[in-house]
Amino acid sequence: xxxxxxxxxxxxxxxxxxxxxxxxxxxxxxxxxxxxxxxxxxxxxxxxxxxxxxxxxxxxxxxxxxxxxxxxxxxxxxxxxxxxxxxxxxxxxxxxxxxxxxxxxxxxxxxxxxxxxxxxxxxxxxxxx
Length: 129
Hints:
There is one protein chain. The protein is built from seven helices and no strands. It has one domain (about 5-129): TerB-like, CATH 1.10.3680. By secondary structure, the chain is an all-alpha fold. It is about 70% helix and about 0% strand.
């Protein structure tokens, strides 16, 4: 599906952890969604170990958005999948605050993902809730 290697998945997972943490409530449900993302790309890896590494990166990195460079190099379908996972994490608590919305705008801008398509993904996921 993509040319995302293990380190890329760890970095993108760190972004997902960041999205989960932005409202200062990092729930088990959000962890589960991030594990689902990891499994969808690395089905034979230790998901808990990868999540732990992602959490460490997120804790130590003020340059988290550097991981958008990994995403930017990928085809639109991979970008779309990652944006969808980010939104799943963000809306898992049934609310989107200004910081979460701002994060998504910044990420979309950095990976050259169309705002309109980002909004459509968000709406689709909200409608599934």
